[in-house]
Amino acid sequence: MPESESGGAHPSRIAAAVKPGSHKPSIHWVGFPPEVSDGADKRVALPWPSLLVISTENDGIFLVRYAPDGEFAGDTWHQTIDEAKRQATFEYGELVGPWTAIPSDVQDIASFMNRPS
Q1: Based on the structure, what is the number of domains in the chain?
Q2: Which of 46, 49, 75, 78 could form a disulfide with 84 if both were Cys (CB 3.0 to 4.6 A apart)?
Q3: What percentage of the chain reaches a pLDDT higher than 90?
Q4: Which domain holds residue 71?
């Protein structure tokens, strides 16, 4: 499940759940598009995320997506947290839940987000 990719503490992390839906102006892929490969489309679409995490790292702000099974579902680099939030809204619209601050000692973000209120 989502943890620090670098193994270190995050100075700042927020997360939001994504509801299942069909709002899909963009799809994240693994692999090169046919225009820059041998002409055959060998890309694999990454799954729809259920969890978004925005983390501040030494080399920028990352919006990381995780599938319901905890698998990686894509990431993008941003200059600001607000820019990362706008990207999430662009991609998933009203399906993005409220952003929640993640304490630095939390390792399993999905469990933290799914805890009873």
Answers
A1: 1
A2: 78
A3: 50
A4: 12-21+45-113
